[in-house]
Structure formats: structure tokens, C-alpha cells
What does this fold into?
Amino acid sequence: QAQFVESGGGLVQPGGSLRLACVASGFSVSGYTVAWYRQSPKNYARDVIAGIAPDGTPNYTDSLKGRSTISRDLVKNTVYLQMDIIRPEDTAVYYCNRQFAFIPWGQGTQVTVSS
It folds into this structure.
């Protein structure tokens, strides 16, 4: 069964950094565009914020450009999101999924930005 398990969230101060991870099972991340999504407390929708294509090409939403890096480890079948210069508005539950071939959502990982 294809699934993701997200981890790496927590409480972080503004300006800090986090590295989120999502471990895939049941398929290879090399064959899909894998994206990170987040659902903020004020937004019911899960918005895509970053993605990595099968060829490794990354893309980011404007609010993450210049302060985030998406990467993957094909041996570990894991996709990462390094977030730097974290802002209070980054508070959300973070999920990953195959951007154009969705599978059931995982439990996500909570990121809370607070001083």
C-alpha cells in the first residue's frame, strides 16, 4: 500500500530552521512529483508549497522561495523540506503527497512557530 509518513515538526522560534521528512513506502519517489503541502489553522485547504519532479527539479511557492530547499534521498525513499528563516505564518500541519497521483493523506507533522 502506497503511503507517506511525515516527521520533523515541532515548536520553533521565528527565524529558526526545521527539516521535515516524509518517508514513502509502496512506491518509489523517483517516479513521481512529490510535493509538500500545509494546512494552516485559518485555512481549511491544504496548499502545495514545494515539489520535486522525477528528474529532481524543485519548485516552490513564492512565500518559500529563497528560504526553503526540497530534496530527496532515493536510497531512503524520502523527501525532505528544509525550512529556514521560519515565520509565524509558517505555523501549520505539513503533509506530503504525490502531486499528480494522490494517495491517502498521512498524519502530517505539526510545525508551530512561536517565541
